[in-house]
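step 3/5: co-fold with pyridoxal-5'-phosphate
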Amino acid sequence: MMVNTEQITHAVHEVRASVSDVARRCGRSPEEITLIAVSKLHPVEALLAAMGAGQRHFGENYIQEALGKQQELEKSGDHDLRWHFTGRLQSNKAKYIPGNFCLVHAIDSIKLARAVHSRAEHQAEATGSAFCQDVLIEVNLAREEQKAGIDESALPQLAETMEALPAIHLCGLMVLPPFSLSVEKRRPFFARLRELRDGLQQRLGRKLPTLSMGMTDDYIQAIEEGATLVRVGTRIFGPRPAKQ
Ligand SMILES: *Cc1c(COP(=O)(O)O)cnc(C)c1O
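step 4/5: write tokens
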């Protein structure tokens, strides 16, 4: 697929500007919100185009593809990139997370939390450092069967279990509202995620600063409801090529 560098550069600037505008309009500081360019299935050239516009946070959903891109981009110099794992993580792939991704967005079971924790402990031992992997819990608010994410009734127990795992650090929550709903009807899901976060903060007695919510169609509504990470793909890179 041809990469239109100019178009991607332009889109990054536009999305950044709109994120800032929306933040200010609802009395928030634009610095509270980080734009993640979700680059899954797009070629390295597309990421380079976004980097040219100052983009540093990228989201990827497939481990092998992400590691390949990381290697290629490292070859082209030290760009200080921040990689987010935004996809569904299988426990047996947890070993690829520590050291390669700053944040895992979609922990949704105790099994997966333990798998990431165990690999983070390995990483700490291997590097002789106090390594800790940042993670989010994905909540399946609409109880969609085909979707990942934990049921909100099981959220407190998962969060408390994770608190006892020293090599992972729970930073907040993530949601993907039902795509079938109109954008305005997705807003209550963002508001609900924030409420759940507030409740969990009380329960754990500490801050959970991160709310990962909002994509191409609904990042404005998500910011209005408190998003701190917005995950935007199509609006920046155009339509995604099909998965091979
Ligand atoms: C692909 C993806 C995105 C980006 O979606 P767009 O609609 O293209 O902006 C955001 N979040 C997650 C979890 C994704 O898988």
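step 5/5: annotate
The longest helix spans residues 183-204.
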